[in-house]
Amino acid sequence: MGAVVKKKYSGIFRDGGAGKNARQRYRDRRKKLMDEVGHLIVLTGVPYGPGGETIWSYAYSPTYQEPAVMYLTGVNQNQALLLLDPHSRQSDEILFVPQKDPVKEFWDGVRFGAGSPKSIQETKRVTGLRDVRDIADFDKVFQERFSRQRNKKVGAFWLEGIRNGKKTRITGDHNWSFRKRLSGLLRKRNAPRGALVNIMKTHFDLRLPLDSYDAANALKANEITGRSFKATLRHFHHFKNEAQTKSFIEGNMLMHSPYGLSYPSIIASGPNAAVLHYMKDDDDIGRDELMLMDFGVRWMTMHADITRTVPASGKFNPMQKVLYEIVLKAQLEVESAAKAGETINKLNEICWDCVNHGLKHEFKAAGGICKLKYKNKPHGVSHLMGEQEHDGDPFRNYADALMQPGWMISNEPGLYGEFRWKYKGKVYDQEIGIRIEDNLLITDKSCRNLSKSIPKTVAEIERWMASGKRDKTPNPVALAGGL
Ligand SMILES: [Mn+2]
Which of 110, 237, 269, 388 is deepest in the core (most CB within 10 A)? Predict the structure, then answer.
């Protein structure tokens, strides 16, 4: 948290690690968007805060703002609207917030508010936004500003893409509700058809390449996540079930970041790991099972999204090792191919070819039998990351776009199915899910693996698990007064 943002405001203004420069950094982002779009733009923040009634998936996270608004302002407060008016002589940017409300602040803490000259001054000082007004005046100000436009267009943001060859939209969120409200206001002004345009693509083009502050924040998120994973490996022999493992790793991550988890972790033992979005967490851990863990923490507005798969016993059995190394090899291939100018679709080809090749030549050729849970590929190997754990358009139309320097992507090959192998007189027969996931920052000629500090090879994982047993780490379940 930057020194210039007082303790009081750190919850509602994220300086992104830029400290004193944060206000200029956000201002530059707004300027760039205005330059690119060239006409009026209005954006909405989330309607409800943590614990409020909302469809927003980060509603229970301390970082919950609509990512488009977060990216442009750092303002982490519900009920905020942003108006950008590039050709205005009055003010080219206005933040709309509700009236200052001391009773609400007593319940929920400090908020940016309009109403008094003092509270407006304070909001401008902390956020650097040039004009701050009462959200109750939005409709009036918007219509006035629209009538003055020479170019009768308004840019707004909603999520839209192509799915199965058809244009499709997300219509259940606050962005879509706001779009409907704007359409109504424009109709009253007899605006021409097509006056409302989606700036999603322009916005993502600017937002997805991370700047140096966000790249540093993403690296820090990865480092915290990695330390928590190492601690989890060192205590793993104490865990009897998925819930204990989950609460330990999540508690450890949250102990080192006030910004919340990237998403609720997937902690799946044995066959549960073959359910991609397993959430049950109520099973005991079997001794010879693998445990798949998909977890990550936020730092500022950036996310880590990591998956590791570890043997509950502390040692991979021969079949688990062969299968694990097939997945690992595919992951390394993807990493060495990832660079600017390449596409995610190409990474998909490399990944699943490599996994299927490995299965054929290293497992089946040695007598292994398998029944996979899917045809050809179980899921995409990469998604974009940034202000959201899954960033960019949710329909992933970016998969055939050329990757840009500064893009952050996941690298997560997996293998899920029933496997059987007779090896040195012993039969191994298990339903297994293996996934290994790192986060990569794309550069001109290659990529930077932000997850380098997180144990990944068979030897590294076994070494960390053994070191916990050797050092007799205390039992965290017992320390918590466990049953
Ligand atoms: Mn992921």
Answer: 269
CA of 206 to the centre of ligand 1 (A): 22
| Ligand 1: centre distance to CA 54 (Å) | 24
Distance 118 CA to ligand 1 centre (A): 44
pLDDT at 6: 59
Ligand 1 centre distance from Cα of residue 249 (Å): 17
pLDDT tens-digit map of 264-301: 999 999 999 999 999 999 999 999 999 999 999 999 99
Compute the radius of gyration of the chain from its Cα atoms.
Answer: 25
Q: Which residue has the tokens 């798949």?
A: 292
Cα–Cα distance measured from residue 203 to residue 71, given in angstroms and rounded to the nearest whole number? 10
What is the bridge-based pairing of β-strands 196-198 and 154-156?
parallel
Six-digit token pair at 463? 């070494």
| Phi and psi, residue 290, nearest 5° | -95, 150
Question: Rounded to the nearest whole angstrom, what is the distance from the C-alpha of residue 383 to the centroid of ligand 1?
Answer: 7
Angle value at C-alpha 197, between 63 and 58, nearest 5 degrees: 15
Q: What spacing in Å lies between the alpha carbon of 123 and ligand 1's midpoint? A: 36
pLDDT, average across residues 337-346 = 98
Domains and CATH numbers, the chain: 7-207 (3.40.350.10), 212-479 (3.90.230.10)
Would you say 285 and 312 are in contact if contact means Cβ atoms under 8 Å apart? yes
Spacing, Cα 435 to ligand 1 middle (Å) = 10
**Residue range 149-174: average pLDDT?**
95
From the CA of 382, how far away is ligand 1's center (Å)?
7
CA 92 to centroid of ligand 1, rounded, Å:
38
For the record, the structure tokens of 130 come out as: 């040039």
Among 303, 300, 290, CA closest to 410: 303
Which of 309, 165, 303, 186 has its CA nearest to residue 245?
309
Q: What is the pLDDT of residue 53?
A: 53
Residues 262, 287: contact at Cβ < 8 Å? no
Q: Dihedral sign, CA of 456, 459, 461, 463?
A: negative
Q: Rounded to 5 degrees, what angle do the CA atoms 307, 310, 312 make?
A: 140
**Residues 290 and 314 sit within 8 Å (Cβ to Cβ):** no
Residue 380 Cα to ligand 1 midpoint, Å, equals 9
